[in-house]
Amino acid sequence: MSNKCAHPALQQLLVQLRNIHESISSYRPSNDRPPILDSSLDTTGDEDGLWLRQDGIHGLKKLKESIKIDLDVLEKFLEDPQSVHLPPLSTNSPYLIAVWNELLCAPGPVESVFKLFKVAGPISDSRQRGAQRPPTAKKMENDGYE
Questions:
Q1: pLDDT tens digit string along 51-68?
Q2: Could you give the CA distance from residue 131 to residue 71 in angstroms, rounded to a whole number?
Q3: How many Å apart are CA 49 and CA 43, to the nearest integer?
Q4: Radius of gyration over alpha carbons of the chain, in Å?
């Protein structure tokens, strides 16, 4: 059993991770049906439908596994009686908790977790030779600007 007095911030993270780990198994998207216009999808025999299955959200399993890893590491550290004398453990828990909170608050449909999608072209470095410079204002003789 963990020492409740040692590392209170880690104790709090441990409780949050336990709650999330239990909740993630029953997570269902907030919207009932995504805007799918395909009548060929056969959902007979599956009352919730394909859109409510967890495996339809890429990365959710990875999030659960990452939470479990951090949960196990925190439990092991806090159960060690010597941890009282050690500095707090560095953990990824705050990030994982933030990802879970974003998932809960995200407008549907949620397609993926732990993925990066580019929405614009590549970012150009304006310091490169030959890069186009932004227009500048020219000073006029009457101290005004064009």
A1: 444 456 888 999 999 999
A2: 49
A3: 6
A4: 25
Under a CB-based contact definition with an 8 Å cutoff, are residues 93 and 13 in contact? yes
DSSP string, the chain: ---TTS-HHHHHHHHHHHHHHHHHTT---SSSS-----TT---TT-TT-GGG-GGGSBTHHHHHHHHHHHHHHHHHHHHSGGGGGSPPPP-SHHHHHHHHHHHHHSPSPP-BSS-----S-PPP-TTSTTPPPPP-PPBPTTS-B-
- State the burial class of residue 66 (Cβ atoms within 10 Å of its Cβ: 0-12, 13-18, 19+): middle
pTM for the full model?
0.62
CB 96 within 8 A of CB 17: yes
